Prior knowledge:
Structural class of chain A: mainly alpha
Oligomer: homodimer
Distance between the termini of chain A: 19 Å
Strand content of chain A: 5-15%
Amino acid sequence: MPTRSGSELDPKLMDALVQTSFSVIARLSQAAAAHDLSLTQLRMLAILRDHQPKMAELATYLGLDRSSVSGLIDRAAKRGLVQRTSSGDDGRSFRVSLTADGRRLAPALTAEIAELIAPLTRSLTIAERQRLGDLLIRMLR
Amino acid sequence: MPTRSGSELDPKLMDALVQTSFSVIARLSQAAAAHDLSLTQLRMLAILRDHQPKMAELATYLGLDRSSVSGLIDRAAKRGLVQRTSSGDDGRSFRVSLTADGRRLAPALTAEIAELIAPLTRSLTIAERQRLGDLLIRMLR
DNA sequence: TATTGTTATACTCTATAACTATA
DNA sequence: TATAGTTATAGAGTATAACAATA
C-alpha cells in the first residue's frame, strides 16, 4: 500500500513548487505583456477560447467579483478582442465571446508561451520531462 | 547520452506546469490575503527575511521600477512591518529591513503557506513527492 | 554629469455598495 | 423579491517622467 501520509510538506518540495510557479507565471506575464495584456486578460482569453459564458459565469471562472469583470470586458471590448452578445431568453444577461481579432490572437499567444516556458525545462532530459509531466498531471487530478 | 532536444515543449507538460503554477500562486495569494498582504508584499517580506537591500536592489529583486517600490515600502512601513535605515556612507540611499513585527510575521506565513500547499500534493505517494521535488530542483538549476 | 530615491500622474485591477432592468 | 449586470467610489499596484539631493 502506497504511503500518502498526512499534511506534512517537505520544505524542499514546497520551495521547488513556489519557485517553479513564480518562474512560470513570470513567463506567462511576459508573453501577455508582449501583447499589452495583463495576466487576467490572458486567463480570460484562454477561457473564452472554449466557452461563451455569461458575465456571472466568467466571474466565477476567474474568481473575481462581477463588477471587476465588467471593467475587464469593457477594456477588452474597447480593444476589439471580445464582444457582448445577447443571451436570447433572459433579457438581463449576455454572453461574452471572442471577436475574430480575439480568436486570431489565441494561437499566437499559445506559441509564444510555449517558447518562453520551454527553456525552463532545458536542463531535463526528455525522459525526465515525461516523468515530470506525469507527476504533475497526477498531482492535479 | 541523455536526450535534451531543443526547443519543443510537450503541450501536456506545458499545461501541467501552467495549471500547477496558477494553483500554487492562488494558494500563496490566499495565505497573503489572510494577513491583508498582496503577493508582492509577500515576496518582499520573503526577501527581507534574508537581506537588507537598498531600494534599488529591492526593485531589482522584485523586478519592479524603483518608483513602484517606494509606494510598496511606504505602505508596509505605515503598517509597521518594515523600516528605512540609514545606509552609512552614501547619503542618498537607505537600507530596508524588517521591524520586529515584520520579523514575527514571517514564520507564521511560512507555516500557513505550507498548510495550503500540502493538500495539493495529497494524491501523490511519498516516493512520488520525493521524485517531483528532485525533478523540479534539477529543472530550476 | 550620473545615481538614488521620491513625487506627480495615469492606468489597470480589484472589491464594496448602490443602482437599473428584468425575472 | 431576487437576480444579472453596471456604475460610483476607493485603494493597491504598476510604469513613465520630472524632480531634489548626493556623489
